[in-house]
UniProtKB/TrEMBL annotation:
Organism: Lentzea jiangxiensis
Lineage: Bacteria, Bacillati, Actinomycetota, Actinomycetes, Pseudonocardiales
PANTHER family found in the cross-reference section: CARBONIC ANHYDRASE, CARBONIC ANHYDRASE 2
Catalytic class of the enzyme: lyase
Cofactor requirement: Zn(2+)
InterPro entries (UniProt xref): Carbonic_anhydrase, Carbonic_anhydrase_CS, Carbonic_anhydrase_sf
Example of a GO MF term: zinc ion binding
Keyword Lyase (UniProt): yes
Name recorded for this polypeptide: carbonic anhydrase
């Protein structure tokens, strides 16, 4: 089945959730992964969601959400840190490709979050441009600790939620789409062991958020 960008934000979110549930259950359908789909989308792409996630090799979006070719417009950086290239890519997905949903996807045992914690605790700071990644994650760790959220899952959820807000704060285009009800931005935390993705932040979508 070929989805189109006429989906509402809620419908797009439900597609992702149902795909993740199939993945967790071990019953994936592998939609849109055949030669017919390949030929269908060759002239143009019509993804239903922008997926902004961590670059971790265990976080392959099309697999963990059981989707296929042309379904997701994927942007990935270590620690899902936000820069101008990320903002431009997300805006392209929303403005040009008309995606109704933007997802920020973090995961447990994130190396970037662990490195930021280590930098704060014992001053261990990596060199090169890895340091820039760590510095961009550090405010999330500080905010979580200031709020008394000291567990790893709580720090991760804070970082995902702050990334959601940062996208909206820095992108007027995205904020206007969310305010108009034509787009939503959500934050998900992925568990490596069982493959589940839980909702920790939602902007423009009336759904329950998991407490951390």
């Amino acid at each position: 089945m070929a989805e189109s960008t006429s989906l509402s934000p809620a419908e797009a979110f439900e597609l992702l959730l149902s795909g993740n549930q199939r993945f967790v259950a071990g019953t994936p359908e592998h939609p849109n992964q055949d030669a017919t789909r390949r030929a269908e989308i060759a002239p143009a792409q019509r993804p239903f969601s922008v997926l902004f996630g961590c670059s971790d090799s265990r976080l392959a979006a099309e697999i963990i959400f059981d989707r296929g070719l042309g379904d997701l417009f994927v942007v990935r950086t270590a620690g899902h840190v936000v820069g101008s290239e990320v903002l431009g890519s997300v805006e392209y997905g929303v403005e040009v490709l008309d995606c109704p949903l933007v997802v920020v996807l973090g995961h447990d045992a994130c190396g970037a979050v662990a490195a930021a914690c280590a930098a704060l605790d014992d001053g261990t700071v990596p060199g090169g441009y890895i340091r820039d990644v760590v510095e961009r994650v550090t405010p999330s760790v500080l905010a979580a600790r200031a709020a008394g959220r000291l567990e790893a899952d709580e720090i991760l959820a804070e970082h995902v939620s702050r990334s959601v807000d940062l996208l909206l704060d820095r992108s007027r285009l995205l904020a206007e789409r969310v305010a108009a009800g034509t787009a939503a931005v959500v934050g998900l935390c992925y568990r490596l062991a069982d493959g589940s993705a839980r909702l920790v932040a939602a902007r423009g979508l009336d759904v329950g958020v998991t407490a951390v």
